[in-house]
């Protein structure tokens, strides 16, 4: 009980006013039909010391940790942090969430904790993509190569995103480093309570990044950006690295970027999906929108956008069920309602989840909209 009390205190759950604002906007609360669940009720169970019932609550593993409730809370309760820390406690007690892909993704993360592992990380590089062994800038690829294989039937932009990132940097006169033995950043592990695996992955990555001499890390994955920027320093100590999502990196150099919107596409309409980790977790809202407009698109916003944006429906590959699918259908329907020709994402997971729903049994004209990653769009429009 003392361990749960520590988590309650650390995440300000004592200050919950039971006002119900979190329940009103939680997408899982809206769609989970097993029993009524909400962030407020889950916090109440924790405050009452009802640890076992916290772990059994329907929201406990299905929570998207999208941070919407935390931003809206008048008492500044850190609900996403409460869920993350409580899941670590649950794991110690033998409770695990259900992996939505048969433990494949968990397994490759655990395999990468072996320091003697020599992964083949650079096969995706084309001959015309230039990288360096001593650049101050390092491109952190993340799990794109693995997603490309696991979800190849969905025609996602996995490796295409990584190639596009290098192409953009080369166009800017930059030949970044790419680690030959990069590991998974550990995002999913920390949010599923597997701190041991997270710390192993983070330690190996930091060791190799420090050996590279790079001081600026650029990634195309919002989850990698959030993990490297916020979680590594918190759990392993300050690393002194500057962590940027590619949209930030390009926006800083937009005046010298040298791309020209294609005239024939200048009237295309696009709408934008705020990835949770990039937006509410890192506060990056404007840069992706500025780049979409710079490419010549007319940006048409969805009904819920910026801080109020609706998540893509699942997080950490855990508990992707009926509620998640309903959320995805709801969001894709919002995107279609804008009249846009294209839904632009900055997170490969958003693309995976939306494409999965488009190809599933719930697919219909209401969710039929083209989906592209902003990185590949930028690479396509290079002058």
Question: Can you tell me about this structure?
Answer:
The chain has 383 residues and is α/β, with parallel strands linked by helices. The protein folds into three domains: 91 residues, no CATH class; 149 residues, 3-Layer(aba) Sandwich (Rossmann fold); 122 residues, Rossmann fold (3-Layer(aba) Sandwich), CATH 3.40.50. Helices cover 47% and strands 7% of the residues. It has 20 helices and seven strands. The strands form two sheets. Strands 5-4-6-7 form a four-stranded parallel β-sheet, with helices on both faces. The chain has a three-stranded parallel β-sheet with strand order 1-2-3. β2, α14 and β3 form a beta-alpha-beta unit. It is globular and about 60 Å long.
Short description:
The chain has 383 residues and is an alpha/beta fold. The protein contains 20 helices and 7 strands.
State the separation between the terminal residues, measured CA to CA. Answer: 61 Å
Strand adjacency order, main sheet: 5-4-6-7
Compressed to H and E, one letter per element, the order equals HHHHHHHHHEHHHHEHEHEHHEHEHEH
Mean pLDDT: 90
- State the shape: globular
Q: CATH fold name of the largest domain, please?
A: Rossmann fold
Write the SSE topology.
Layout (H helix, E strand, L loop, with lengths): L1 H9 L10 H5 L1 H5 L7 H9 L3 H6 L1 H5 L5 H5 L6 H14 L11 H8 L25 E4 L3 H7 L8 H13 L15 H5 L3 H18 L3 E4 L2 H15 L5 E4 H7 L16 E4 L4 H5 L4 H9 L3 E2 L22 H16 L4 E4 L2 H12 L10 E4 H7 L3
Helix pairs in contact: 1-8, 11-20, 15-17, 18-19
């Amino acid at each position: 009980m003392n361990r749960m009390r520590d988590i309650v205190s650390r995440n300000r759950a004592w200050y919950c006013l039971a006002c119900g604002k979190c329940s009103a906007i939680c997408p899982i609360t809206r769609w989970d039909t097993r029993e009524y669940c909400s962030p407020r009720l889950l916090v109440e169970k924790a405050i009452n010391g009802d640890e076992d019932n916290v772990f059994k609550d329907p929201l406990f593993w299905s929570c998207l940790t999208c941070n919407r409730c935390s931003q809206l809370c008048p008492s500044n309760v850190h609900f996403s942090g409460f869920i993350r820390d409580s899941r670590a406690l649950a794991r110690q007690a033998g409770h695990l969430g259900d992996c939505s892909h048969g433990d494949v993704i968990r397994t490759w993360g655990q395999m990468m904790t072996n320091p003697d592992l020599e992964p083949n990380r650079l096969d995706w590089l084309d001959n015309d993509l230039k990288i360096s062994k001593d650049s101050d800038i390092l491109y952190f690829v993340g799990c794109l190569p693995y997603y490309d294989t696991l979800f190849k039937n969905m025609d996602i932009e996995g490796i295409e995103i990584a190639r596009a990132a290098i192409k953009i940097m080369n166009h800017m006169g930059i030949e970044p480093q790419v680690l030959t033995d990069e590991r998974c950043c550990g995002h999913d592990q920390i949010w599923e309570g597997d701190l041991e695996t997270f710390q192993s992955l983070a330690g190996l990555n930091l060791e190799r990044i420090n050996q590279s001499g790079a001081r600026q890390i650029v990634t195309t994955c919002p989850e990698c950006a959030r993990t490297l920027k916020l979680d590594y320093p918190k759990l392993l100590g300050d690393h002194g690295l500057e962590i940027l999502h590619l949209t930030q990196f390009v926006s800083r150099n937009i005046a010298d970027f040298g791309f020209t919107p294609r005239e024939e596409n200048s009237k295309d309409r696009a709408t934008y999906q705020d990835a949770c980790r990039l937006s509410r977790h890192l506060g990056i809202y404007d840069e992706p929108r500025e780049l979409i407009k710079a490419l010549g698109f007319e940006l048409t916003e969805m009904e819920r956008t910026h801080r109020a944006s609706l998540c893509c429906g699942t997080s950490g590959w855990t508990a992707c069920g009926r509620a998640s699918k309903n959320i995805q259908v709801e969001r894709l329907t919002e995107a279609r309602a804008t009249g846009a020709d294209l839904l632009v994402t900055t997170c490969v997971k958003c693309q995976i989840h939306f494409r999965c729903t488009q190809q599933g049994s719930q697919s219909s004209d209401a969710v039929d909209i083209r989906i592209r990653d902003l990185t590949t769009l930028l690479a396509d429009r290079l002058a």
